[in-house]
Amino acid sequence: MNQWRSTYRQKLVSAEQALGSIKSGNRVVLGHACSEPPVLVEALVNRFTELSNVEIVHMVAMGPAVFARPGMEQSFRFNGFFLGAPTRKAVAENRGTFTPCFFGEVPRLFKSGILPVDVVLMQVTPPDEEGFCSYGLSVDYTQAAAESATIVVAQMNAKLPRTGGSKIHLDALTWIVERDSPIVELPAPDFGEVERRIGEHIATLVPDGATLQMGIGAIPDAALLSLRDKKDLGIHSEMFSDGVVALAEAGVITNQAKTIHRGKFVATFLMGSRKLYRFVDNNPDVELYPVDYVNDPCVIGQHANMISINSALQVDLMGQVNAEMIGDVQFSGVGGQVDFVRGAGRSPGGKSIIAVPSTAAKGKISRICHQLDTGAAVSTSRNDVHYVVTEYGIADLRGKTVRQRAAALTAIAHPDFRDQLRGTRSPMEEHALVTANQ
Ligand code: COA
User: Fold this and answer.
1) pLDDT at 382
2) Hey, CA dihedral for 234, 299, 291, 59, is it positive or negative?
3) Of all residues in the chain, what percent carry a pLDDT higher than 90?
4) What is the DSSP code (8-state) at residue 380?
5) Number of neighbours of residue 150 by Cβ within 10 angstroms
6) CA 351, CA 396: separation in Å to the nearest integer?
7) CA distance 294 to 100
8) Which residue from 191, 244, 332 has its CB within 8 A of the most atoms of ligand 1, so it is best to mutate?
9) Residue 158 to residue 177: CA distance in whole angstroms
């Protein structure tokens, strides 16, 4: 026991020493979201004059993403599975690129060698008595990257909350950089009347005892607010945030009716404020597992009454969901949306919900549309989609014909756009017309 203590000292280096092992042409995977190691990323960026063609593989970037800024493109090539504010422009301006992949399948890319990992830069907590560190706020693909990488560099940060479920032993780390730095916090989402009404519709679809998955943002938080009168809700979610803490403290989320992992909050990563981080730190009821487990539709589908709540940018009249592109520009990524739509589809009593405000761009654009934007990808297919919710109501698309879908979706569009949507031929009618004319 405690043999690890002798090797621990030998692995302790400065960030500059640790990052010195990265070579031009390497593929470097960064720990995800709030677990991105700021001290290591800064040391990597500081080497930009010495390095060329280093591929940086990442998903939700919560840091400033200096490696994706103009002037860095000869040194670093950003490759994202998901884009956010700091990385979207880099991809649009061809300083980086985007790899489509369901979140639940990212670990397979690393482990199978399709995307071999040279180096992973991650954060961990200080070790326990047995030499095991917690992954903190993100296990997701970080564990698979750590298990596949040639070099594993960890920023050991005592400020990182210690979560259960998954851990990494010091023996698996190549270099350790001891440095406490503040954990990135997510600002509380601002929501108004539209989101509040969407939340109220969602609440009518959620039975007592349901297990929930929800994303981040105004709609999930508004939905949680509307669930205050429910009983014994549970969490099996890609991620969760402060809204879940409030419902847990109110006794609404107990996890006691969950079919598997009874009594536990299960997620693959966490993002929120200090309130969330205090709640999850050393909390034996919070368990984080790799994303290929948490987002596996077969695991999700084992929960009775699994309800998934996700958002979108557009839904066409056949029910195809675009959650990631505006026109032909990549805005975000598919994330775990399809993983959970399919999981909820398998669950006894399960429901998947795509919730969208009826309009975008201050009411100028209808998000319920005749056809998706030219160049936009389908994130969730019409074959998978179940419920679509706007502030005007709920469209239940399962088992409906394309005509019935068009009618149900038009009925929940903003009233200003309904005539226009009714006046358009359905995509199937368009297709029939084109084929008849050929
Ligand atoms: N056409 C043009 N612009 C549009 C648009 C459309 N159809 N839909 C939205 N926009 C604009 C909005 O007006 C807004 O612009 P603004 O910031 O200037 O006001 C911007 O695009 C963002 O839209 P919004 O709906 O506020 O985005 P969001 O932050 O709520 O995120 C998704 C919505 C769909 C992008 C996000 O949920 C996502 O990436 N989902 C996919 C992944 C996923 O579902 N993961 C689930 C598990 S965590």
Assistant:
1) 98
2) negative
3) 92
4) B
5) 13
6) 10
7) 19
8) 332
9) 12
